[in-house]
From TrEMBL:
The gene is glpE. InterPro entries: GlpE_sulfurtransferase, Rhodanese-like_dom, Rhodanese-like_dom_sf. Residues 93-179 form the Rhodanese domain. GO terms for molecular function: thiosulfate-cyanide sulfurtransferase activity. This is Thiosulfate sulfurtransferase GlpE. SUPFAM superfamilies: Rhodanese/Cell cycle control phosphatase. Pfam families: Rhodanese. Its EC number is 2.8.1.1. It is an enzyme of class 2 (transferase). PANTHER family: FAD-DEPENDENT OXIDOREDUCTASE, PYRIDINE NUCLEOTIDE-DISULPHIDE OXIDOREDUCTASE. Residues 1-24 form the signal peptide. It comes from the Bacteria. Keywords: Coiled coil, Signal, Transferase. Residues 26-64 form a coiled coil.
Length: 181
């Protein structure tokens, strides 16, 4: 009788272990399926964004705008400009260009581009409405050009079009400077 119970217990134990392994395998397969779906959605979103960027660049090209190879190769919807070109853009706009300083108040204490609007980088999402999106050139700068490039990228994704990033930041600006008010 004991042998029969032992044999039944052994069969039940084997069945239980098999059930647990099957359950674990099912969970792993479900996790893998969720991960694959998440990954596929991420790839789809990235491709949609890249296609949107390319369409916007093609539309600009069709409208007669000059694109840089950097804009095309990197999918940038803004232009990187050096000091002299940035100054020329602002001067040619005859006071209609918008210059945005995205540095911190501590950084701007040492000086700003004359007439620049101070919007620290971390305030851009809340204050973007202060930045014109009406075809006027918008020059954005920071201390070295990295944060302003990130702001240009953010604004471009929001539909802003005439964005220029000052490569080299504030120290690359050859025009008049002043103190913040």
């Amino acid at each position: 009788m004991f042998a029969q119970y032992a044999s039944t217990a052994a069969v039940l134990l084997v069945a239980f272990v098999a059930y647990m392994r099957a359950t674990a395998a099912l969970r792993a397969a479900e996790d893998a399926a969720r991960d694959a779906t998440r990954s596929a959605n991420g790839v789809r979103e990235e491709l949609e964004q890249r296609i949107d960027t390319l369409q916007r660049l093609l539309a600009r090209l069709a409208a007669g705008q000059t694109l840089t190879s950097e804009m095309i190769n990197d999918g940038q919807l803004w232009k990187d400009v050096h000091g002299d070109e940035a100054h020329r853009i602002v001067m040619e706009a005859s006071g209609k260009a918008c210059v945005i300083d995205v540095r911190t108040p501590q950084e701007t204490a040492g000086g700003i581009v004359d007439g620049a609007l101070l919007i620290p980088m971390d305030e851009i999402p809340d204050r973007a409405a202060e930045i014109p999106n009406d075809g006027r050139p918008v020059l954005i700068y920071c201390a070295a050009g990295g944060r302003s490039a990130a702001v240009c990228d953010h604004l471009a994704k929001q539909g802003y079009e005439t964005l220029h990033n000052l490569v080299g930041g504030f120290s690359a600006w050859p025009g008049p400077t002043g103190r913040p008010s």
